Amino acid sequence: MTTLVACSHGTDSPAGRRTVADIVDLVRARIPGTRVVQAFVDVQEPAVPEVVEQEHLDDDVVVVPLLLSVGFHTAVDIASAVRPYDNVRQGEPLGTHPLIAEVLRARLRTAVHDRWLPGDHVVLAAAGSSNPAAVADVTRAAAHLADLIPVPVTIGYASAIEPRIADAVSFARERGASRVIAASHVLAPGYFAGLVERSGADHVSAPLGADPRIAEVIIERFRSA
Fold first, then answer.
1. What does the angle CA 65 – CA 69 – CA 74 come to, to the nearest 5 degrees?
2. Structural domains in the chain?
């Protein structure tokens, strides 16, 4: 058997911690007989190097980043934890999978009470990274979402690169949008979700959260690693 290490960023938010734990529980319920353990790259313990060092002694290991794009945490933190061991592999992050766009659409429909209006505009609000591969991942995620909803989609970032989320909201209004909805491209409540909420959008969708489709993406990343 192979152990699945579900590696998330970590957060100080109690709601965020509960949400990630609930996501991991959904994964466990769908693959009984597979050992599923949590690890973190920041803020929370246990740290991913410690978990991998322990788990690889008993079994093969796949570390699945519970992150929505590549970036420093996947390329450095997780990669350096995986690299020393021949029986440990790293899965892809979650964000470019089409099911993520389906969850985003569901959260947006809730935010607008299942009613799109003429002049609506969605800003996909992502955490942000200066890594070009991360930008490409978010661009792909925005394209998936644009295929599913009847309104324009642009991108705003919480950090690292432009445009920032609040600026993207303002740009949409300047271009004629009568209602701007920020799509929270974050997994759980926490620091980045708070930035999206304060972006000035007319409506803000909830984080992706503990949705069965998120669990399915994690399992697919695990099996394809």
1. 50
2. 2-95+210-224 (3.40.50.1400), 98-205 (3.40.50.1400)
* Structural element, H or E, at residue 6: strand 2-8
C-alpha 28: how far from chain center: 19
pTM of the predicted model over 0.90 = yes
Contact 68, 95 (CB under 8 A): yes
Could you report the per-residue pLDDT of 172-207, keeping only the tens digit for each? 999 999 999 999 999 999 999 999 999 999 999 999
Q: Are 37 and 4 in contact (CB under 8 A)?
A: yes
**Cβ(28)–Cβ(41) below 8 Å:** no
Contact 123, 154 (CB under 8 A): yes
Q: 3-class DSSP state for residue 77?
A: helix
**Structural Rg of the chain based on CA atoms:** 18
Q: Which two tokens stand for residue 192?
A: 């980045």
For the stretch 114-140, pLDDT in tens is: 999 999 999 999 998 889 999 999 999
Quick check: helix, strand or coil at residue 99?
helix
CA geometry: angle at 182 spanning 176 and 184, to 5°? 160
**pLDDT value for 203:** 98
CB 118 within 8 A of CB 178: yes
Residue 37 half-sphere exposure, CB side, CA atoms within 13 Å?
A: 21
